[in-house]
Design the sequence.
């Protein structure tokens, strides 16, 4: 009896380790860093440390949900950015260019889908290959990796809107992020596709024996992942008005980290949208708090890494304890 | 049970099931064997083909001096990839749940920084070597503890450790180049007998020693058993966790060693070691196609490291943009993995 109680306690602790860590970090920086708890700073955390990474992490959550991983999310961001900038430079309307950007990102997903669902390569290797090929393609397209600038004079107002505009007083990137999060949560936990994708991640053979078309589901998942990541390419490009080859990879490791930190939030240790959002929030708050507390810039990376490590350790150790009881 | 099986009269259904299981194996067996053979020999054939093409196009390519250069330039990546190979062998080749060490490149960077900093602080080579190896080993120990004690999936544990280690390197060096020179370092970066760099001999010697341990001792056999059949290994009484922990310690040590080599190669420590990560992962994974049974082996990893090294070198000699190298690497891994996957699927059918 005691062990049963303990194990359910362990499971509860695993679930709330993440929330507790977030609260602790928040309280710590509220006392340590003077400007942390101001409205302006918290908004800047959301815009600068949260919005874009959250979208990539949501994309990653879909890939991990379906039992895979996508190392080429950054490549999708880059391809989207490149297509967007090129089309705007070519004088196309911004809306059309944005669609082109999304299509550019989706193309990366299609390539992954062929490799993973069509040929049957493991997602890690397939997307690793895509990452390499994508990097080379970008360097070929840009004469060895030169950034593609948009001339400040020639930038249409609609182009800047996505990165700098406001909707009802809220920055547009944040609104888009909220929409993506909401949409992803609905798809993953409230639709048939989401349930099937999760089932694929838990036991692919069951999905196959249930008469569902596993390759089609997998293909759809990876195209979805890249398309979501492509949204970041659009926002990023509108914010900085330049495409820098292979810059999207900066999101990759933190997105994986946030997704897996998020799995500690689920009682069964599965990837889930709220957990991922909390994971990204945790990373963002730590990055911002460390910056404000005047700590050496380089210690920030150490701090973030230690934090990911501890949350994962607590989560996994608790899950192990719960599983063993 | 298995021994008794033939004596139990098989029902019609079982016979059918047996047939269904065996038919695809008897039919195209020859073709399949041929295809597998072609793939195994194919990797080597591609290797030789690339050498031939390059040597035809660039006469300097196949000289002893150039081959020595390629060996020397591949030393750092080769040592790291061999460390990763040990982890992959012990953890199983499923990349997401099995063995992987993403912290290796960062480990090399920090170990190099520690070495260079110690030399600059006026310590001798002995202290610096000990410091670099201890750094690598400590990182390996953290990975080992995270994976075997806390039970974190290797991919995640080593990802987090990678971030911490890369951060520590920045803290130590303040993101600057730390120059270092000493007699030992110049001896390492010098040319050896036959005009071949010392680093080349080191790579070959290191590969020989590790390959001998991993591929020709009972310890190595157990390492494979632990990775490929953990349940069976556990049932046979092997301390699975100790082997996995040991593999991370070994790869950590390889990271420290590669750190020393990189200090000698670059005459100091520079940041940006993380760029090595993906090429090293590719090298280790690509290595399986150079082994007889398509499993990770130390010699296969060496061949794969040299293959990538010769590709880069040949591209340079032919004045082909080095930006193509990562693309070729990507295509290669996709090609090789597709072929093995398609063949594997036929074998399982």
Sequence:
């Amino acid at each position: 009896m005691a062990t049963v109680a303990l194990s359910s306690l362990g499971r509860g602790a695993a679930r709330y380790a993440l929330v507790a860590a977030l609260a602790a970090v928040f309280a710590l920086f509220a006392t340590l860093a003077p400007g942390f708890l101001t409205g302006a700073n918290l908004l800047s955390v959301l815009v600068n440390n949260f919005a874009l990474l959250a979208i990539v992490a949501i994309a990653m959550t879909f890939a991990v949900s379906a039992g895979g991983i996508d190392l080429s999310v950054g490549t999708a961001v880059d391809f989207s950015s490149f297509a967007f900038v090129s089309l705007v430079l070519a004088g196309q309307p911004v809306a059309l260019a944005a669609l082109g950007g999304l299509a550019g990102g989706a193309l990366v997903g299609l390539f992954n889908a062929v490799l993973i669902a069509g040929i049957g390569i493991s997602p890690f290797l397939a997307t690793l290959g895509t990452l390499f090929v994508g990097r080379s393609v970008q360097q070929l397209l840009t004469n060895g990796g030169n950034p593609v600038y948009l001339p400040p004079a020639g930038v249409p107002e609609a182009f800047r809107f996505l990165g700098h505009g406001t909707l009802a007083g809220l920055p547009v990137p944040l609104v888009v992020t909220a929409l993506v999060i909401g949409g992803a949560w609905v798809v993953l936990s409230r639709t048939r596709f989401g349930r099937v994708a999760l089932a694929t991640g838990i036991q692919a053979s069951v999905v196959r024996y249930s008469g569902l078309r596993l390759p089609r589901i997998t293909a759809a998942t990876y195209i979805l992942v890249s398309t979501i990541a492509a949204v970041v390419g659009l926002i990023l490009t509108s914010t900085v008005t330049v495409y820098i080859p292979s810059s999207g990879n900066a999101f990759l490791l933190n997105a994986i980290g946030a997704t897996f930190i998020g799995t500690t939030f689920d009682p069964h240790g599965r990837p889930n949208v709220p957990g991922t959002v909390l994971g990204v929030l945790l990373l963002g708050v730590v990055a911002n708090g460390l910056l404000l507390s005047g700590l050496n810039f380089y210690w920030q990376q150490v701090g973030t890494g230690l934090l990911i490590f501890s949350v994962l350790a607590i989560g996994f150790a608790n899950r192990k304890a719960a599983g063993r009881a | 049970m298995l021994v008794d099986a033939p004596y139990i009269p098989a029902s019609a259904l079982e016979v059918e099931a047996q047939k269904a299981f065996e038919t695809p194996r008897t039919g195209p067996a020859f073709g399949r064997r041929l295809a597998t053979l072609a793939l195994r020999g194919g990797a080597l054939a591609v290797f030789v083909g690339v050498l031939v093409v390059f040597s035809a196009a660039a006469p300097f390519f196949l000289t002893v001096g150039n081959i020595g250069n390629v060996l020397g330039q591949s030393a750092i990546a080769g040592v790291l990839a061999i460390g990763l190979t040990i982890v992959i062998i012990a953890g199983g080749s499923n990349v997401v749940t099995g063995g992987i060490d993403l912290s290796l490149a960062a480990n090399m960077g920090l170990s190099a920084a520690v070495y260079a900093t110690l030399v600059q602080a006026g310590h001798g080579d002995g202290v610096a070597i000990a410091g670099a190896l201890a750094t690598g080993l400590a990182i390996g120990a953290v990975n080992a503890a995270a994976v075997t004690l806390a039970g974190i999936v290797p991919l995640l544990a080593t990802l987090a450790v990678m971030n911490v280690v890369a951060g520590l390197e920045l803290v130590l060096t303040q993101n600057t180049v730390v120059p270092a020179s000493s007699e030992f370092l110049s001896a390492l970066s010098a040319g050896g007998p036959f005009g071949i760099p010392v680093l080349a001999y080191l790579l070959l010697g290191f590969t020989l020693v590790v390959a001998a341990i991993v591929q020709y001792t009972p310890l190595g056999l157990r390492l494979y058993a632990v990775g490929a059949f953990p349940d069976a290994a556990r049932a046979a009484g092997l301390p699975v966790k100790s082997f996995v922990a040991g593999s991370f310690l070994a790869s950590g040590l390889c990271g420290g060693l590669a750190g020393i080599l990189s200090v000698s190669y670059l005459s100091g420590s520079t940041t940006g070691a993380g760029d090595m990560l993906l090429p090293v992962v590719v090298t280790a994974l690509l290595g399986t196609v150079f082994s007889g049974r398509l499993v990770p082996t130390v010699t296969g990893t060496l061949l794969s490291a040299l293959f990538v090294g010769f590709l880069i070198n040949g591209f340079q000699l032919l004045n082909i943009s080095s930006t193509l190298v990562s693309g070729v690497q990507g295509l290669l891994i996709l090609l090789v993995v597709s072929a093995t996957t398609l063949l594997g699927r036929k074998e399982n059918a």
